[in-house]
Design brief:
Length: 317
Amino acid sequence: MIKSKNKIKIRYLLLLLLLTTVPLLTAQQIVTAGIIQGTNGYIGFLRGNMPLVISIPHGGYMMPDEVPERPCINCAKNQDIFTLEIGMGIRDEIYRQTGHYPYVIINNLHRTRLDPNRNIAEASDGNKNAEQAWHQFQNYIDSACAEVEKEFGKGLYIDLHGHRHLIKRTELGYLISSEELQLDNELLDLDSFVEFSSIRSLVSNNLNKLSFSQLVRGKDSFGGLLEEMGYPVVPGPGIPYPGPDEPYFSGGYNTTRHGSSHGGTIDGMQIELDEELRRDMSKRDKLVSDLAYTIIEFLRIHYFRDADFVRVMAPGE
Ligand SMILES: [Zn+2]
């Protein structure tokens, strides 16, 4: 009697397991099928349904014969290892936390073949196939940002990278140089610096009416939120600027092109994760989930207070 009761219990549990896993698998299949592939799969585009666009320019692995190594000598060709995995992880994690997907644009070509965070001449070095991939990468970001602007009125664009500097901390680029960041807040808040920044639109329109310096290195800045989760970040409240001789990436071609320094209501930010952080497999899941949470919080605090895509769902919701 007890045995058969247990059997029924096990059957019931198996059925429950089946019922709960089937919808998850279906969602996964939709995501996989939802990748729009550029020519030969060099560039990938995943549509989203929230005002967030993430591009991953340097995480690709493909080295096809028809796109030979770029002949340039003094150009950077190193891959930003694991940024592809981390970026796709952030997409899945944001979906898990909010039920919404960010737009994601991926360059699958290795950086020796294409560098889509450069102008076309330096990016592809004259190779026609690389040029075509560069155009597709940029056009996908353009159309994602246009869709976000139309649907939501404003939004955030993130160019995701990894650096190999010896100082192990996350670097955030807003198109403000290391020297400029060394200025006092009063000076940094002058229009002459704000108007060249990739978050120019946010400075003129943010929910808490914060100044530029507060948005860049205050408590509720992206650096401040990430610091709160235990990560060293520059700029942020703890490390407001890099030291005079310390290396720092302030943002490149993509942040300039797709952020709001030239106008528009999509702000831009370059995130550079340090190498140790990216390589540590034991902490990768936590990193991905912390980054996803920080991005959602940043959107919720400064852009869209009550929207459903910034509301983190309770487990099982
Ligand atoms: Zn990079």
